[in-house]
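Subject line: Sequence and fold of a protein, written as structure tokens
Area: Proteins and the way their chains fold up in space.
Start of record: The labelled sequence and token lines come straight after this line.
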Amino acid sequence: MKLLVILLTTLSIFAAKAQTKMKMNFNNEELPKVIEAYSKASGQKFVVDPSVRGKATIIVQDSVSLEEAFDHLSSALALNGFAISKQGDTMVIKSARNIQRDLIEVSTALPLLKPERMVTWIYTAKNVPVVNINRELRIFPSKDGEMSVSSATNQIIISDWASNIHRINAILKEVDKKLDPSITKLVELSKKEAPMKPKLKVSKEVEKDQ
């Protein structure tokens, strides 16, 4: 009897490890429940901050791979303002603003689009001073993102969602490039023709009163 129990336990462990797919069919489900379901299916360890709450609706008719399931989970968390930080073999989940100060991916290469996560991306501008780029693009980081510059190395440092970093990269491709000579002439001409701000004239009567 003991042998049978041991055998069944061993088989169940192997079956759990062999699971490569799971159902992602959640209708207005609490986030901790979705995290728990993924953890059971994948065997992944999670540490979840008490502030993680909210609901998610993920409707996929067929079973999906664990990789795709994790993509759905990360997107559901992002929609609620939470992100994942991989620390060793454990996934830590807490607010996206706090996760920026944790162990997140840092790269000079464009990060993968999925799974959705907070990433620090360092971009070296080749044609335009980063101070100018920062002035024009400072509105583009998400509400959870941050952008700063290193003038000494002409680099932009962005911590944001991977999806938004891809969006900013698409903009940088158009902004950080050499101008066509004809466009350069137009820019210089517009600077020359820009109206001067009128100087405030002080009347002599006011000057006397002063």
Summary: Residues 2-18 form the longest helix (17 residues). The chain is about 40% helix and 25% strand. The chain has two domains: 15-100, 104-179. Helices lie at 2-18, 31-42, 66-79, 96-99, 130-137, 162-175, 181-193, 204-209.
